[in-house]
Protein backbone atom coordinates (compact mmCIF):
# COMPACT_ATOMS: atom_id res chain seq x y z
CA UNK A 1 0.00 0.00 0.00
CA UNK A 2 2.82 2.44 0.83
CA UNK A 3 4.50 1.74 -2.51
CA UNK A 4 1.22 2.26 -4.38
CA UNK A 5 0.60 5.55 -2.53
CA UNK A 6 4.10 6.85 -3.27
CA UNK A 7 3.79 5.92 -6.96
CA UNK A 8 0.42 7.66 -7.17
CA UNK A 9 1.78 10.83 -5.52
CA UNK A 10 4.78 10.75 -7.86
CA UNK A 11 2.47 10.47 -10.88
CA UNK A 12 0.21 13.30 -9.72
CA UNK A 13 2.65 15.92 -8.38
CA UNK A 14 4.99 17.89 -10.62
CA UNK A 15 8.59 17.40 -9.48
CA UNK A 16 9.56 21.09 -9.50
CA UNK A 17 6.45 22.10 -7.58
CA UNK A 18 7.09 19.29 -5.11
CA UNK A 19 10.66 20.44 -4.46
CA UNK A 20 9.55 24.06 -4.04
CA UNK A 21 6.78 23.06 -1.65
CA UNK A 22 9.05 20.84 0.46
CA UNK A 23 11.69 23.60 0.63
CA UNK A 24 9.13 26.17 1.77
CA UNK A 25 7.71 23.78 4.38
CA UNK A 26 11.24 23.15 5.67
CA UNK A 27 11.84 26.92 6.09
CA UNK A 28 8.51 27.35 7.89
CA UNK A 29 9.18 24.34 10.13
CA UNK A 30 12.67 25.53 11.16
CA UNK A 31 11.50 29.10 11.77
CA UNK A 32 8.46 27.86 13.70
CA UNK A 33 10.67 25.69 15.92
CA UNK A 34 12.82 28.70 16.77
CA UNK A 35 9.75 30.81 17.60
CA UNK A 36 8.25 28.07 19.74
CA UNK A 37 11.47 27.73 21.78
CA UNK A 38 11.86 31.49 22.23
CA UNK A 39 8.31 31.76 23.56
CA UNK A 40 8.36 28.52 25.49
CA UNK A 41 5.31 27.06 23.75
CA UNK A 42 4.09 23.47 24.04
CA UNK A 43 3.69 21.10 21.05
CA UNK A 44 0.10 21.99 20.20
CA UNK A 45 0.59 25.72 20.84
CA UNK A 46 3.67 25.60 18.61
CA UNK A 47 1.75 24.02 15.71
CA UNK A 48 -1.16 26.42 16.21
CA UNK A 49 1.09 29.49 16.37
CA UNK A 50 3.22 28.49 13.37
CA UNK A 51 0.29 27.66 11.07
CA UNK A 52 -1.62 30.79 12.02
CA UNK A 53 1.45 32.97 11.53
CA UNK A 54 2.41 31.36 8.24
CA UNK A 55 -1.04 31.64 6.71
CA UNK A 56 -2.26 34.99 8.09
CA UNK A 57 1.04 36.82 8.75
CA UNK A 58 2.40 38.18 12.03
CA UNK A 59 2.51 41.57 13.76
CA UNK A 60 5.92 42.93 14.60
CA UNK A 61 6.68 42.96 18.33
CA UNK A 62 9.64 45.29 18.87
CA UNK A 63 9.21 45.64 22.61
CA UNK A 64 9.21 42.00 23.73
CA UNK A 65 10.70 40.07 20.80
CA UNK A 66 14.42 39.34 20.75
CA UNK A 67 16.59 39.30 17.66
CA UNK A 68 16.21 35.52 17.15
CA UNK A 69 12.44 35.78 17.47
CA UNK A 70 12.28 38.69 15.03
CA UNK A 71 14.35 36.79 12.44
CA UNK A 72 12.15 33.73 12.86
CA UNK A 73 8.99 35.83 12.47
CA UNK A 74 10.33 37.35 9.24
CA UNK A 75 11.29 33.92 7.85
CA UNK A 76 8.00 32.30 8.73
CA UNK A 77 6.02 35.23 7.30
CA UNK A 78 7.95 35.20 4.01
CA UNK A 79 7.58 31.42 3.86
CA UNK A 80 3.88 31.79 4.50
CA UNK A 81 3.55 34.14 1.53
CA UNK A 82 4.92 31.40 -0.74
CA UNK A 83 3.20 28.52 1.02
CA UNK A 84 -0.40 29.33 0.06
CA UNK A 85 0.14 29.76 -3.70
CA UNK A 86 2.41 26.71 -3.76
CA UNK A 87 -0.22 24.60 -2.05
CA UNK A 88 -2.79 25.87 -4.56
CA UNK A 89 -0.49 25.07 -7.50
CA UNK A 90 0.24 21.57 -6.20
CA UNK A 91 -3.46 20.81 -5.72
CA UNK A 92 -4.38 22.13 -9.18
CA UNK A 93 -1.49 20.25 -10.85
CA UNK A 94 -2.44 17.04 -9.03
CA UNK A 95 -6.06 17.32 -10.18
CA UNK A 96 -5.07 18.01 -13.81
CA UNK A 97 -2.43 15.27 -13.88
CA UNK A 98 -4.84 12.88 -12.24
CA UNK A 99 -7.49 13.50 -14.87
CA UNK A 100 -5.00 13.02 -17.70
CA UNK A 101 -3.62 9.88 -16.08
CA UNK A 102 -7.07 8.42 -15.53
CA UNK A 103 -8.05 9.21 -19.11
CA UNK A 104 -4.88 7.51 -20.36
CA UNK A 105 -5.26 4.53 -18.09
CA UNK A 106 -1.90 5.14 -16.40
CA UNK A 107 -3.12 4.88 -12.83
CA UNK A 108 -3.36 1.13 -12.60
CA UNK A 109 -2.93 -1.17 -9.64
CA UNK A 110 0.51 -2.80 -10.05
CA UNK A 111 0.21 -6.20 -11.76
CA UNK A 112 2.40 -9.29 -11.86
CA UNK A 113 2.75 -12.24 -14.25
CA UNK A 114 0.91 -10.35 -16.98
CA UNK A 115 1.70 -9.73 -20.66
CA UNK A 116 2.16 -6.22 -22.05
CA UNK A 117 0.94 -5.87 -25.64
CA UNK A 118 2.12 -2.78 -27.53
CA UNK A 119 0.22 -1.84 -30.68
CA UNK A 120 -3.48 -2.51 -31.12
CA UNK A 121 -3.79 -2.80 -34.88
CA UNK A 122 -5.04 -5.91 -36.68
CA UNK A 123 -2.41 -8.24 -35.24
CA UNK A 124 -2.40 -6.68 -31.76
CA UNK A 125 -6.19 -6.93 -31.54
CA UNK A 126 -6.14 -10.64 -32.36
CA UNK A 127 -3.36 -11.23 -29.87
CA UNK A 128 -5.17 -9.58 -26.94
CA UNK A 129 -8.36 -11.46 -27.81
CA UNK A 130 -6.61 -14.84 -27.88
CA UNK A 131 -4.57 -14.19 -24.74
CA UNK A 132 -7.68 -12.96 -22.93
CA UNK A 133 -9.53 -16.12 -23.97
CA UNK A 134 -6.63 -18.14 -22.51
CA UNK A 135 -7.03 -16.32 -19.18
CA UNK A 136 -3.78 -14.34 -19.41
CA UNK A 137 -3.64 -11.02 -17.53
CA UNK A 138 -2.93 -8.18 -19.97
CA UNK A 139 -1.97 -4.51 -20.17
CA UNK A 140 -2.35 -2.85 -23.60
CA UNK A 141 -0.45 0.19 -24.89
CA UNK A 142 -1.09 2.25 -28.02
CA UNK A 143 -0.40 5.87 -28.97
CA UNK A 144 -3.71 6.18 -30.81
CA UNK A 145 -6.83 6.35 -28.58
CA UNK A 146 -8.88 5.41 -31.64
CA UNK A 147 -6.85 2.32 -32.54
CA UNK A 148 -8.81 -0.71 -33.68
CA UNK A 149 -8.02 -2.67 -30.53
CA UNK A 150 -8.67 0.19 -28.08
CA UNK A 151 -12.40 -0.50 -28.04
CA UNK A 152 -11.75 -4.23 -27.76
CA UNK A 153 -9.46 -3.66 -24.77
CA UNK A 154 -12.12 -1.57 -23.01
CA UNK A 155 -14.78 -4.14 -23.85
CA UNK A 156 -12.69 -6.96 -22.37
CA UNK A 157 -11.71 -4.93 -19.31
CA UNK A 158 -8.02 -4.84 -20.26
CA UNK A 159 -6.12 -1.83 -18.83
CA UNK A 160 -5.24 0.50 -21.71
CA UNK A 161 -2.46 3.08 -21.67
CA UNK A 162 -2.66 5.66 -24.46
CA UNK A 163 0.96 6.72 -24.77
CA UNK A 164 4.29 6.00 -26.46
CA UNK A 165 5.62 2.63 -25.27
CA UNK A 166 9.17 3.70 -26.16
CA UNK A 167 9.19 5.89 -23.03
CA UNK A 168 10.49 4.23 -19.88
CA UNK A 169 7.88 5.75 -17.57
CA UNK A 170 5.08 4.32 -19.71
CA UNK A 171 6.48 0.79 -19.51
CA UNK A 172 6.99 1.22 -15.76
CA UNK A 173 3.36 2.34 -15.46
CA UNK A 174 2.45 -0.96 -17.14
CA UNK A 175 4.53 -2.80 -14.48
CA UNK A 176 7.10 -4.06 -16.98
CA UNK A 177 9.38 -5.11 -14.12
CA UNK A 178 6.88 -7.80 -13.00
CA UNK A 179 5.40 -8.93 -16.34
CA UNK A 180 5.76 -12.29 -18.08
CA UNK A 181 6.61 -10.84 -21.47
CA UNK A 182 6.57 -7.72 -23.64
CA UNK A 183 4.89 -8.26 -27.04
CA UNK A 184 5.52 -5.36 -29.45
CA UNK A 185 3.21 -5.44 -32.48
CA UNK A 186 2.85 -1.95 -33.96
CA UNK A 187 3.35 -1.33 -37.68
CA UNK A 188 6.52 0.77 -37.26
CA UNK A 189 9.80 -1.19 -37.07
CA UNK A 190 11.71 1.66 -35.41
CA UNK A 191 9.04 2.24 -32.77
CA UNK A 192 8.86 -1.49 -32.06
CA UNK A 193 12.62 -1.74 -31.65
CA UNK A 194 12.74 1.32 -29.36
CA UNK A 195 10.01 -0.12 -27.14
CA UNK A 196 11.78 -3.49 -26.95
CA UNK A 197 15.15 -1.95 -26.08
CA UNK A 198 13.56 0.36 -23.50
CA UNK A 199 11.93 -2.65 -21.88
CA UNK A 200 15.25 -4.49 -21.83
CA UNK A 201 16.83 -1.39 -20.29
CA UNK A 202 14.34 -1.51 -17.42
CA UNK A 203 14.71 -5.28 -16.97
CA UNK A 204 17.61 -7.18 -18.53
CA UNK A 205 15.92 -10.61 -18.43
CA UNK A 206 12.65 -9.40 -19.99
CA UNK A 207 11.10 -11.83 -22.50
CA UNK A 208 10.43 -9.90 -25.71
CA UNK A 209 8.39 -10.87 -28.77
CA UNK A 210 9.12 -8.30 -31.45
CA UNK A 211 7.28 -7.76 -34.74
CA UNK A 212 9.40 -6.45 -37.61
CA UNK A 213 8.39 -6.20 -41.26
CA UNK A 214 11.88 -6.41 -42.76
CA UNK A 215 12.99 -10.04 -42.47
CA UNK A 216 16.75 -9.41 -42.80
CA UNK A 217 16.57 -6.51 -40.35
CA UNK A 218 14.67 -8.70 -37.89
CA UNK A 219 17.31 -11.43 -38.16
CA UNK A 220 20.13 -8.97 -37.42
CA UNK A 221 18.24 -7.41 -34.52
CA UNK A 222 17.48 -10.79 -32.98
CA UNK A 223 21.18 -11.73 -33.01
CA UNK A 224 22.54 -8.33 -31.97
CA UNK A 225 20.21 -7.67 -29.04
CA UNK A 226 19.50 -11.26 -27.98
CA UNK A 227 15.75 -10.81 -28.34
CA UNK A 228 13.79 -13.97 -27.66
CA UNK A 229 11.59 -14.02 -30.78
CA UNK A 230 11.30 -11.69 -33.76
CA UNK A 231 8.80 -12.30 -36.53
CA UNK A 232 8.41 -10.60 -39.91
CA UNK A 233 4.71 -10.74 -40.73
CA UNK A 234 5.25 -10.11 -44.42
CA UNK A 235 7.97 -12.79 -44.48
CA UNK A 236 5.65 -15.31 -42.85
CA UNK A 237 2.71 -14.44 -45.09
CA UNK A 238 4.62 -14.36 -48.39
CA UNK A 239 4.77 -18.15 -49.01
CA UNK A 240 1.05 -18.63 -48.37
CA UNK A 241 0.26 -15.65 -50.58
CA UNK A 242 2.47 -17.03 -53.36
CA UNK A 243 0.85 -20.45 -53.05
CA UNK A 244 -2.59 -18.91 -53.37
CA UNK A 245 -1.43 -17.09 -56.49
CA UNK A 246 -0.45 -20.52 -57.89
CA UNK A 247 -4.07 -21.58 -57.24
CA UNK A 248 -3.01 -24.28 -54.80
CA UNK A 249 -4.52 -24.83 -51.39
CA UNK A 250 -2.04 -24.33 -48.59
CA UNK A 251 -3.27 -26.17 -45.52
CA UNK A 252 -0.97 -24.42 -43.06
CA UNK A 253 2.20 -22.37 -42.74
CA UNK A 254 4.78 -23.43 -40.15
CA UNK A 255 7.34 -20.83 -38.99
CA UNK A 256 10.77 -22.32 -38.27
CA UNK A 257 13.30 -19.72 -37.07
CA UNK A 258 13.25 -17.11 -39.85
CA UNK A 259 11.86 -19.53 -42.48
CA UNK A 260 8.40 -20.82 -43.30
CA UNK A 261 7.36 -24.33 -44.30
CA UNK A 262 4.15 -24.99 -46.21
CA UNK A 263 1.77 -27.89 -45.66
CA UNK A 264 0.07 -28.44 -49.01
CA UNK A 265 -1.79 -31.04 -51.04
CA UNK A 266 -0.23 -32.02 -54.38
CA UNK A 267 -2.35 -33.98 -56.92
CA UNK A 268 -0.46 -36.44 -59.16
CA UNK A 269 -1.53 -35.85 -62.75
CA UNK A 270 -1.77 -38.65 -65.30
CA UNK A 271 1.31 -38.75 -67.49
CA UNK A 272 3.21 -36.40 -65.20
CA UNK A 273 6.89 -36.82 -64.35
CA UNK A 274 5.91 -37.98 -60.87
CA UNK A 275 3.57 -40.80 -61.99
CA UNK A 276 5.21 -44.19 -61.62
CA UNK A 277 7.96 -42.91 -59.34
CA UNK A 278 8.46 -43.93 -55.72
CA UNK A 279 7.55 -41.74 -52.77
CA UNK A 280 11.22 -41.73 -51.79
CA UNK A 281 12.17 -40.23 -55.15
CA UNK A 282 9.74 -37.34 -54.62
CA UNK A 283 11.08 -36.44 -51.18
CA UNK A 284 14.10 -34.15 -51.04
CA UNK A 285 16.22 -33.64 -47.91
CA UNK A 286 15.69 -30.20 -46.34
CA UNK A 287 13.17 -29.30 -49.08
CA UNK A 288 10.19 -31.71 -49.42
CA UNK A 289 8.83 -34.42 -47.16
CA UNK A 290 5.80 -36.59 -47.98
CA UNK A 291 3.80 -37.15 -44.80
CA UNK A 292 0.70 -38.81 -46.30
CA UNK A 293 -0.50 -40.47 -49.51
CA UNK A 294 -4.16 -40.50 -50.54
CA UNK A 295 -4.83 -43.21 -53.09
CA UNK A 296 -7.46 -42.53 -55.73
CA UNK A 297 -10.71 -44.09 -54.60
CA UNK A 298 -9.46 -44.89 -51.11
CA UNK A 299 -11.32 -43.16 -48.24
CA UNK A 300 -8.40 -42.93 -45.82
CA UNK A 301 -4.87 -41.57 -46.28
CA UNK A 302 -1.70 -43.61 -45.76
CA UNK A 303 0.33 -41.69 -43.19
CA UNK A 304 4.12 -41.74 -43.51
CA UNK A 305 4.02 -44.00 -46.60
CA UNK A 306 7.02 -46.28 -47.24
CA UNK A 307 9.65 -44.83 -49.55
CA UNK A 308 9.15 -47.68 -52.04
CA UNK A 309 5.43 -46.92 -52.54
CA UNK A 310 4.79 -46.28 -56.23
CA UNK A 311 2.66 -43.29 -57.22
CA UNK A 312 -0.21 -43.49 -59.68
CA UNK A 313 -2.20 -40.89 -61.57
CA UNK A 314 -4.91 -39.11 -59.57
CA UNK A 315 -3.18 -39.92 -56.26
CA UNK A 316 -2.72 -37.01 -53.90
CA UNK A 317 0.30 -36.23 -51.77
CA UNK A 318 0.29 -34.31 -48.49
CA UNK A 319 3.71 -32.70 -48.19
CA UNK A 320 5.68 -30.32 -45.98
CA UNK A 321 7.93 -28.23 -48.21
CA UNK A 322 9.71 -24.96 -48.77
CA UNK A 323 8.08 -22.56 -51.20
CA UNK A 324 10.48 -23.06 -54.13
CA UNK A 325 10.58 -26.83 -53.64
CA UNK A 326 6.78 -26.94 -53.56
CA UNK A 327 6.61 -24.98 -56.81
CA UNK A 328 9.01 -27.46 -58.46
CA UNK A 329 7.00 -30.45 -57.20
CA UNK A 330 3.74 -28.94 -58.47
CA UNK A 331 5.29 -28.52 -61.91
CA UNK A 332 6.50 -32.14 -61.96
CA UNK A 333 3.16 -33.50 -60.70
CA UNK A 334 1.08 -31.54 -63.22
CA UNK A 335 -0.39 -33.49 -66.12
CA UNK A 336 1.22 -32.65 -69.49
CA UNK A 337 -0.64 -30.24 -71.71
CA UNK A 338 -2.09 -32.03 -74.79
CA UNK A 339 -0.69 -31.10 -78.21
CA UNK A 340 -2.44 -28.02 -79.47
CA UNK A 341 -3.75 -27.25 -75.99
CA UNK A 342 -3.51 -23.94 -74.26
CA UNK A 343 -1.10 -23.71 -71.30
Task: Describe the protein.
This protein is of the alpha/beta class. The protein contains 12 helices and 11 strands. The strands form 2 sheets. A 6-stranded parallel beta sheet has the order 3-2-1-4-5-6, with helices on both faces. Strands 7-8-11-9-10 form a 5-stranded antiparallel beta sheet. A hairpin with a 7-residue loop joins strand 9 and strand 10. Helix 3 packs across helix 4 (67-104). The longest helix has 38 residues, at 67-104. It is rod-shaped. The termini are far apart. Mean pLDDT is 78; it is low at 102-106.
Map the helices and strands.
Blueprint (H helix, E strand, L loop, with lengths): L1 H11 L2 H25 L3 H14 L10 H38 L10 E4 L3 H12 L4 E5 L5 H9 L3 E3 L5 H6 L7 E4 L4 H14 L5 E4 L3 H11 L3 E3 L1 H13 L4 E7 L2 E9 L11 H4 L5 E7 L7 E2 L12 E6 L1 H11 L10
Helix pairs in contact: 2-3, 2-4, 3-4, 5-6
How would you summarize what this structure contains?
The chain is α/β, with parallel strands linked by helices.
- What's the total number of strands? 11
In the predicted model, the low-confidence regions spanning at least 5 consecutive residues are 102-106
Helix content estimate = 40-55%
Rg to the nearest angstrom? 35 Å
Summarize the main sheet. 6 strands, parallel
* Global morphology: rod-shaped
Q: With helices defined by DSSP (H or I, 4 residues minimum), what is the helix count?
A: 12
The overall pLDDT average reads 78
Topology as a string of helices (H) and strands (E): HHHHEHEHEHEHEHEHEEHEEEH
Beta-strand residue percentage: 15-25%
**Secondary structural class:** alpha/beta
The N- and C-terminal alpha carbons lie at a distance of 75 Å
Biggest β-sheet: strands ordered side by side in the sheet: 3-2-1-4-5-6
Amino acid sequence: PVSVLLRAVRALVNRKLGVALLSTLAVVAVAGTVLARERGLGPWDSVYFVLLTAITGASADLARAGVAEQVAQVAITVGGLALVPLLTAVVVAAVVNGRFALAAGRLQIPRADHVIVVGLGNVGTRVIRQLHDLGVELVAIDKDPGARGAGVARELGIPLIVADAAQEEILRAASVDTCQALVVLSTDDVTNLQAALTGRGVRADLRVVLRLFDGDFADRIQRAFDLAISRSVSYLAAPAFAAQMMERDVIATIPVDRHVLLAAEVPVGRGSAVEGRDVGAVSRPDAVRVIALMRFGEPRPIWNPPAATRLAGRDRLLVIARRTALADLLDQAAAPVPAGGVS
